[in-house]
Amino acid sequence: MTTSTPIVGRAGHGLTYAVLGWAVAYGGVRLTWTVGEAPDAGRFGSDLLGFTGWRSVALCVAAGVVAVALDRQRTWRPVLAGVAWTTAAALVAAAAILLPEVVGLLLLAVGPHVDPVGFASRLGCVTGAVLLALATARYQRRTRGDCPACCRTTRPGPRRRTPARWARWAAYAAVVGLVARFAAQAVVGFDGLTEDASVIGLEVGLVLAGALLPLALVHRWGEVWPGWVPLLAGHRIPRLLLLVPGFGLGTGIVAYFGMGLAQVATGSDSEFSDAFLWAAMSAYCVIGLGLVTASSDYHLRTRRACGTCGR
Q1: pLDDT score, position 58
Q2: Do 81 and 202 reside in the same domain of the chain?
Q3: What is the pTM of this model?
Q4: H/E/C letters for each residue in the chain?
Q5: Is there a domain that residue 152 lies in?
Q6: What is the mean predicted confidence (pLDDT) over 106-134?
Q7: Which of 150, 151, 218, 232 is the most exposed place for a label (fewest CB within 10 A)?
Q8: Which structural domain, as residue segments, surrounds residue 209?
């Protein structure tokens, strides 16, 4: 028990230095592009969304300052944690264009329109968001709970094995969002969407992300391989196999289509009607929020018990 605090402290300092190093490196690049000439960002017009120019520099500075504040604070401050999570979310939203690019990479359908410099910049921005999120999570573990080993806040006793009601509702809401998305597409037609192999692959991936994944997060077959799966039946499913796409896709979808809704609200031009864009993008946001919420419950329910307090 006496060794947990130094270990947590060393990990916390390491994350702080990582965020500061990122803020100096990436912030320096943003500063150079702001005062000088930024490279061509390709068809998107900018490598980041919303946070460009001096706002991108300020975002990097804010991330570094928040990381230092998290490291130095020894008590739980909800406002500080909220500011940290908001800053990390802003970094993710700024790099929201990364979602379709990563999907294209996974489908091996990367076209000539992908700009390497812009892609690298967005990847660097998300890296800062991940580092800051890890530092914030470390701060919460260190200050919120009453166990020096795990810092959990739940009451000691038998661990919950069934999904929470709010998680089930979130998963089912994601499925409803998927149905609403295809309903909106049916209104305007599927012309041109069934001819491109990459688009078909994207639609298949959408069905898996909007239906299979959220349901797996709140059902028993999302923890143990079903009997019809050869060689794996009865074995436990690795947590990260669901948590990584659950949190990753959920966060990416909310960031990308949330920024899209902001652009529609400001009157950006599009070949589609505003009604279709509002319906389709709102449905995507419901899918993303449902995934993040269901993944949160899955994480809390399946994480390893603490060896000190048993929670």
Answers
A1: 95
A2: no
A3: 0.79
A4: CCCHHHHHHHHHHHHHHHHHHHHHHHHHHHHHHHHCCCCCCHHHCCCCCCCCCHHHHHHHHHHHHHHHHHHHCCCCCHHHHHHHHHHHHHHHHHCCCHHHHHHHHHCCCCCCCCCHHHHHHHHHHHHHHHHHHHHHHHHHHHHCCCCCCCCCCCCCCCCCCCCCHHHHHHHHHHHHHHHHHHHHHHHHCCCCCCCCHHHHHHHHHHHHHHHHHHHHHCCHHHCECCCCCCCCCCCECCHHHHHHHHHHHHHHHHHHHHHHHHHHHCCCCCCCCHHHHHHHHHHHHHHHHHHHHHHHHHHHHHCCCCCCCCC
A5: no
A6: 81
A7: 232
A8: 165-302
